[in-house]
Amino acid sequence: MAAARHEHSGLYERDRTNLKVFSRWFLLFVLAFVLAVVFLGPTDDGPGQTPYWRFALAVLPLLPGYFAARAYFKFLSEADELIKCIHHEAASKSFVLVILLGFVYYLASQVFGEWEDAGAILWVIAIVAYQVNYRRFWRRFDV
Amino acid sequence: MYNRVRRLRTERGWSQAVLGERLGVSRQTINAIEGGKYDPSLPLAFAISKLFKLPIERIFDPDKTGSEEIP
To answer: Which is nearest to A66 in space by CA: A32, A95, A97?
Structure first.
């Protein structure tokens, strides 16, 4: 018997499971990233004086980040071809948006000075724009 | 790209969901192909051709746009 496909999202149970795996790793990545940023903080250590735990903490977010990326690509490789196409479109448009905003920020920072939270804000904008674009594009076809 | 998917599907009395299930794609994919908003991948075009037992060029025409109207 064929696996059931969700009527609105167009996703198979397998796709939803892949997305859940991705979400868990991504959440862990965000937590590890925040922990690393909070605990690393600024340091006065000179060259060669940085303790090893700081290196370990700096590398820590890469592990869940790697698994999140792997889960995301697994989801994309197994998803319906229209869904895959829309994900690519949403990702590329949000990427272009963030590149443009990055340039705008750079120019603004030359005038008003640097803002240390700008990088984090740009990442949040990228993720939100990706989600918004995906839902907007999908609505064109989900009729 | 112009296609006759909608006509071929309705001639057989299938819904978009049924055709999607037979081809292993979502109902939305069938809807997008029929509406001329999305061109299927080559494997999917071949699967459609095989399912309807017609050559690809009888189903898809790259020189025209839209979808065949149902009278």
So the answer is: A32
Residues 6+ apart with CB under 8 A from A50: A43
Nearest CA in chain B to A1: B21
Please report where in the chains the tokens 């995301």 appear, as a residue.
Answer: A72
What ipTM describes this predicted complex?
0.80
Taking only residues 10 to 29 of chain A, the set having a beta carbon closer than 8 angstroms to any beta carbon of chain B reads 10-11
CA dihedral B57, B62, B64, B66 (to 10 degrees): 90
Query: How many Cβ pairs closer than 8 A exist between chain A and B?
Result: 40
CA distance B70 to B8: 10
A7-53 per-position pLDDT tens digit: 777 788 888 899 999 999 999 999 999 898 888 877 776 667 778 88
